[in-house]
Amino acid sequence: MTSRITKTTRAPSRPAAKQQATVKRIAVNTGGGDAPGLNAVIRSIVLCALNRGWEVIGIRDGYNGLLAPKTFKDGGLIKLTRESVRGITHLGGTILGTTNAGNPLHYPVRRPDGSYIEVDRGDELLRAFARHRFDALIAIGGDGSLSIANELSKRGLRVIGVPKTIDNDLDQTVVTFGFDTAVSFATECLDRLHSTAEAHRRILVVEVMGRYAGWIALHAGVAGTADAILIPEIPFDIRSVAAKTQERVRRGRNFSIVVVAEGAVPVGGTRSVIAKEVGHAERLGGIAETVAKQLQEITGQEARHVVLGHLLRGGSPTTSDRLLSLRFGAAAVRALDEGKSGIMVALDPPTVRYVPLAAATRRMKVVPLDCDTMKTARDLGICFGD
Fold first, then answer.
1. Of residues 34, 167, 169, 171, which has the active-site annotation?
2. Is pTM, for the whole model, over 0.85?
3. In this predicted model, which residue has the larger pLDDT, 16 or 322?
4. Alpha-carbon dihedral 320, 48, 4, 357, rounded to 10 degrees
């Protein structure tokens, strides 16, 4: 994996008095799609904060616990104690709940005629933080959640970000927690699919998550010995993929495994989008079915598709993701203790550093086409459809 790392421990400038303000009560939330390791981060934050004598409050479902408290039986907030985080390191999901809707900066509000408009509830959210006497927020999320956190930081909230996404598309950190678990499970699925593909002499097209970056597809595809890998970074020509499968048939290998990222795009075409709703990011999907149909038409060989989808988000985090999650949680608390704000904790092996939230959310981290994993894949003869 290749990533550009900003090696700095300096957060954006803040008034000295505010930076050194005593921390007594902090809030924690999880936003965006769930990822293995979220509960490990929460546990780490809570224990490290309690050991400093701080109080920790969890916000339900991103910011909805503050923006729509009446929709929760507990009022949208939960006091986090040693007991409440006991035994959760190995659990998938998040005990706080999460959502990829309800962006406070673009909050969907229904009009009387049934249509929706988006309103900025950011200042209202800041007033809620003040009302509940929160000294700081630790926001755990991906690019969308941390972009929100960055804007709240600009408006005066003391914020530390923790990078979470199975897609691994956050800039300024070598890896995000959740990625290793997703890749490990996808690889296991590819191992299983090899035997059935060979038994039936089929082409199997396997769709994986990743949004607009091909990290999961690339790493799982190489590790799972796929014959072709289609990623968003390289528009693909279906004829090139078909030529690869036909070459295998000529060599006596009457089956093929094609891994396709949900955001892959054909040459001259567009991404396959299932739905776009107000307040939600567009839902990608369907590209595997399209690729399978086209390959069957071109080659005459039976082709089937498999969508791993949300299976990649569930389950227990791997050892690597558990350790990274615990390190990130502890680093976030240390950052607050050191007077930092407006930063994200980031892995820059062998250390965890602090980078500005603005830098981490400025652009998406996509697969560099000259990275070693790409070079390895091409040397192995894997087709990328180009």
1. 167
2. yes
3. 322
4. 140
